[in-house]
Amino acid sequence: MIKTNTEQLVCQSVIGEITSPQGGINPYRINPDGYSDVYPGVGGITYNLRIGDLAGEKFGDHVEPGVSISNFTQIQGQPGPNRALNQFSCVGNIARVVSGDAKGETGRVTGKHGGIEHVLVDFAPEVLERLTIGDKIQIKACGCGLNLPDFPGIKIMNLDPALLAAMPLKKLKDGRLEVPVTHTVPAKIMGSGIGASHSHSGDYDIQMFDESIVKEYGLEDLRLGDFVAILDADATYGRIYKTGGVVIGIVAHASCVLAGHGPGVMIAMTSKDGLLVPKISAKANLTTYFAKIK
Fold first, then answer.
1. pTM for the model
2. Residue-wise pLDDT tens digits, 180-210
3. 74 pLDDT more than 80
4. 69 near 43, Cβ under 8 Å?
5. Rounded to an integer, what distance in angstroms lies between the CA atom of residue 65 and that of residue 250?
6. I need a surface site. Which of 44, 77, 82, 98 has the fewest CB within 10 A?
7. Strand ranges, E, within 101-149
8. Residue 26: which residues within 8 A CB-CB, separation 6 or more?
9. Which CATH class is domain 155-290?
10. What is the mean pLDDT of residues 256-264?
11. CB atoms < 10 A from the CB of 241, how many?
12. Rounded to an integer, what distance in angstroms lies between the CA atom of residue 220 and that of residue 266?
């Protein structure tokens, strides 16, 4: 067992409501080749895209799997409640429906999407059918401050302690930590979201426009909920290029057509000194680990 500080963590409620998808006055989105079309995008209840599904298969742009929630209650002109929802929610947290026809049903947080500032939640298909835009979902937020006392050079973010415990992590003889991932990704193709001042909310995107890189790293079969390792990167205090650094992230939203964008990766672990060792495993997906959490 990998030692954690779980007993020191605060568990606190945050809440949001199911958002509506948004359309623009100009509905067209233009890709880097100059082709334009009208694509389904962020928000709402997405019935046919969930964790475990391919990130680049559907006709859409930035589509969020399952349910998208936010909380834009204004307090003295500041969007504090939505910041709390985004900063304190952690992947694996239990999310309970507290209004509407599906009241009492539970799901789990699967990721966060920056820019639009949504928290993403997965529910069983039969629950999705009973949900309605505007339904309130309360999250039992736990995981902020989670760390590994035996690995001070590794920072953990956005993970429920129960999810971390379900992952087959391994301490290596040289003091590094082995983490299963489905893919490795070179930092040179990371786009939108890089340079953010912190990684406790939001994500940054894998640009998928270079066919040779996509083929070299096998990125065509990326799935929502996959754990991936971004090489030569660090996100300890913001997302940067860092030779030798390693970031472990979770694919949170589907692919995009806009330049600089792609499947979004939410930060889960980071080490500027390369103390994280990726181990390729096709099972390194949230669907695998959620099945192990009681």
1. 0.96
2. 999 999 999 999 999 999 999 999 999 999 9
3. no
4. no
5. 13
6. 77
7. 106-113, 118-122, 136-141
8. none
9. mainly beta
10. 95
11. 14
12. 19
* Beta-ladder partners of 205: 264
Residue pair 19/43 in contact by the 8 Å Cβ criterion: yes
CA gap 140, 191 in Å, rounded: 31
Q: How do beta strands 177-181 and 276-280 pair?
A: parallel
Coarse DSSP helix, strand, coil percentages of the chain, rounded to the nearest 5 percent = 15, 35, 50
Quote the tokens at residue 165.
């415990």
What is the model's pLDDT at position 75?
62
Candidates 3.40.50.800, 2.40.10.170, 2.60.40.350, 3.90.220.20; CATH matching 6-141: 2.40.10.170
> Rounded distance, CA 166 to CA 179, Å?
12
pLDDT digits (tens, 9 = 90+) for 24-69: 889 999 999 999 999 999 999 999 999 999 999 999 999 999 999 9
Each domain of the chain, given as residue ranges in start order, spans: 6-141, 155-290
Sign, CA dihedral 6-112-185-59, equals positive
For residue 226, count other CB atoms closer than 10 A to its CB.
Answer: 25
- Residues 62 and 260: their CA atoms lie apart, in Å, by 12
Average pLDDT over residues 225-231: 98
Residue 188's contacts (CB-CB under 8 Å, 6 or more residues apart) are 232, 241
Query: Around Cβ 55, how many Cβ atoms within 10 Å?
Result: 27
Q: Which residues have CB under 8 Å from 289's CB, separation 6+?
A: 92, 163, 166, 167
6-141 and 155-290 share one fold: no
Which is nearest to 246 in space by CA: 227, 274, 268? 274
Cα(first)–Cα(last) distance of the chain, in Å? 17
184, two tokens: 């490795």
Q: What percent of the chain has pLDDT over 90?
A: 95
